[in-house]
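User: Okay, second chain of the day. Same drill as before: sequence in, structure tokens out.
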Amino acid sequence: MIRKSLLYTTPLLFLLTLLVLYQWSMYTYGDQEADASLSLPKANIRVIHDDGRIYVEQSIEAVKEGSYTVRIPEGIGSVECVYEEGKPCLLEGSPTTVTVSANKELHFTYELPFKGEGFISGVWFIQLVSNGSLIPMDMNVSITEKQPDKWIWISSALEVAKIKKDHIDFYQWEEEKVTNFPLYSLEAEGYSEQQKGPITFYSKNSLPEHTLNKIQDLYEQLSDEPLIVVVGSKSNSSQRGVMHVSSLNEQSFKEAWYHLVLTAGASVPKEMKWLIDSLVAYSANTNSDTEKGKKIKTALTEQVTEIEKEKFFMLLSEKDEIRIPSDLDQTLGKVKGLETSFFQENISLGKPFVPLYFYETKKILLNNNPVKVNWRPIKIEGERFYPLGGLATLMNMKVTGIPSENVYIVRKEDDTWRFSLNKQTFIENEESFGIASEVLIEVNKDVYMKERYIKEILGISVQEGDQSFYIIE
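Assistant: Same drill. Structure tokens below.
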């Protein structure tokens, strides 16, 4: 009996021992591996501004061993790279690459162009690129200003130090996991600083307290992130966390905020400016300057609720960079729980307006059997439509189109229907008339049939399930 019990318990004890050893190894080494995979390079950047010239010393540490593309900003000069022990880095080829050995620290020195009041141009510091993507870094940036009577510096990052002495000013900021670090220079003479909640205002004249209170109340509905607002600056550009307005009131603040959200501080190509302006008009409830922009605003107002609108702009505001139009389409689709290509299809001002519609993503089942189709139903203003040609192929119906007359003839077994675009009547079997609104619509050169008439006129059952659409002959 004992021998028999040992026969069963011995393998079990062996397996338990292996399991305990595995758990111990994960406890001992697993967290280290996880921490290593989550660790980011650390950039320490020291900036010195003196007599219109900006000198930069930058180090990047905790870089994993490997070969990286070095992204060198436009306009910088006198770039030098050395490892921590003083050995020169090999910056080769175009684009420039650098090979990093294990636990090596990179050191760069360079000069930046200084154009006076405004942002230091674009992404101003040296970055590393891996597999085509910028590597986020934990950043520590300090500025020594040797002309403190002429210039002050601001940033949306966390302020660590701000020390003013007789002949120099010293600033220091920190921010984690970023690929962008806005720095803004202001002419020191005449600017006053005022704080209201998470917003810091810089202006030539002291701003009325009641105006600041209104702006704070408005901003609390939009974001809880720190924000710097420069009022009346010579610069008219904005970047993440730092916003420019020519004058301050609720309307100008809203427009500037939404413009900042939509562009994420990036320069907007001239051919897309009208689209950004149209979305600002939609967000701030102002008038668009173009007819197509007015149609975009109307379409969004009619099909996107106020709650969805707030979520749309909130999600966009969380992005470091917005790709237009793809991020606009993806974000709007995420808010609605469907997919859309609305902004992509309307990207060109010179092309006709395409209505706002959403693609259904559920599977199609015919008589309870999954089918592969190269089309999807669409949804417009809560109504679902199916592509007439795709539906006809699936159901073995024949469709004859007479585009010059906007007429489409559908044949299903012994029955025939004659439908017309933009008409509320149709003809059945060449003898009886029916009345129905929007049986067929045209969207982006494709003809669709409203779901309810697929049931009521063609006699085809269409039912929506949690994961699929069920089409029954």
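The mean pLDDT is 84.

User: Thanks, on to the next one.
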